[in-house]
């Protein structure tokens, strides 16, 4: 009788759960959310980044933000921004680039100068 009650209790508990585990743990697929952000007070900025479709280049106003997901276990990420011009009364220019992976800052750099050199960050993200 004890055995029957134990089996019935176990079956009841198992029927209440919706946990589905893969047969092979290596079948689990990671999805990383990758964001590229550029902020600052430049009027227009040339932005280059490595996305899922290869190297992309855009000329944009700020702030600039784009994102994608990746299932790769290792991925090289790069982001570069070049301020093209600032508003005439700007006394303190500012430019910031960030690569964010799964909500955490992966790489970041800031720039506060009128010279027109690009600011860039890059790195390989691994699980």
Order of adjacent strands in the largest pleated sheet: 4-1-6-7
CATH architecture: Sandwich
Low-confidence stretches: none
Helix and strand pattern = HEEEEEEEE
Indicate the percent of residues in helices.
10-25%
Taking all Cα atoms into account, the compactness measure Rg is: 24 Å
Distance between the termini: 50 Å
Determine the number of helices (DSSP H or I, runs of at least 4 residues): 1
Number of strands: 8
Q: Indicate the CATH topology.
A: Immunoglobulin-like
Mean pLDDT: 84
Structure description:
By secondary structure, the chain is mainly β. The chain has a single domain (29-126), classed as Immunoglobulin-like, CATH 2.60.40. The protein is 11% helix and 52% strand. It is built from one helix and eight strands. The strands form two sheets. A four-stranded antiparallel beta sheet has the order 4-1-6-7, with no helix packed on it. A hairpin with a 2-residue loop joins strand 2 and strand 3. The N and C termini lie far apart (50 Å).
Features:
single chain, 127 residues, mainly beta, Immunoglobulin-like, four-stranded antiparallel β-sheet
